[in-house]
Amino acid sequence: MTDLGSSDRLAAALAHLGSTIDARAKEGDASKSWTAKLLAKGPESCAEKVHEEGMELAEAVRRESDANVASEAADVLYHAFVALRSRGVSLDDVAAALEKRQGISGIDEKASR
Ligand SMILES: N=c1c2ncn([C@@H]3O[C@H](COP(=O)(O)OP(=O)(O)OP(=O)(O)O)[C@@H](O)[C@H]3O)c2ncn1[C@@H]1O[C@H](COP(=O)(O)O)[C@@H](O)[C@H]1O
């Protein structure tokens, strides 16, 4: 099995994606931009897309090619970012949530609840 590895490419691509989504939110045209179209529909529609794309990723992990798994994961990340934007939750907020968990085992965290 291949390691996940760290990826400067992913970090750069996600930063670019975040900026693009912000730009579409500010001046996107819903007839030309999927992002603007989704954002215009509000958080409920964004949530539906996150759910749908999550199911598609799960299905790909179960029985599809590595390329499809990567593609569906990209769909999930994109739609998660749009959903965050629809709620006004920033990437810094997500980073803070991830940082708080660093070094804490998920098993220990669950046991402490
Ligand atoms: N990363 C994405 C991205 N991923 C997926 N999608 C769109 O999300 C939509 C998903 O729709 P569907 O559910 O119908 O598609 P699907 O799940 O692939 O199809 P099915 O398998 O369900 O049939 C498609 O129109 C995709 O093109 C994306 N649209 C935009 N981006 C990024 O956002 C940027 C701005 O895009 P616009 O806002 O459209 O200009 C783009 O340059 C990209 O960087």
Summarize this structure briefly.
With 113 residues, the protein is mostly helical.
List keywords for this structure.
Helix Hairpins; globular; single chain; ATP-binding; binds phosphoribosyl ATP; mainly alpha; amino-acid biosynthesis; EC 3.6.1.31; phosphoribosyl-ATP diphosphatase activity; 113 residues
Ligands present:
phosphoribosyl ATP
Annotation field: number of helices: 6
**Tell me about the biggest sheet?**
none
What gross morphology would you assign? globular
Structural class: mainly alpha
Q: N-to-C terminal Cα separation, in Å?
A: 33 Å
Fill in the CATH topology: Helix Hairpins
CATH architectural label? Orthogonal Bundle
What top-tier CATH class fits best?
Answer: Mainly Alpha
Q: How many β strands by DSSP? A: 0
Instruction: Give me the CATH superfamily.
Output: MazG-like
Q: Spans of 5+ residues with little confidence (pLDDT < 50)?
A: none
Please give the radius of gyration in angstroms: 16 Å
Structural domains: how many: 1
* Residue share in β-strands: under 5%
Q: How do the SSEs run, as a string of H and E?
A: HHHHHH
Mean pLDDT: 96
Proportion of residues in helical segments: over 70%
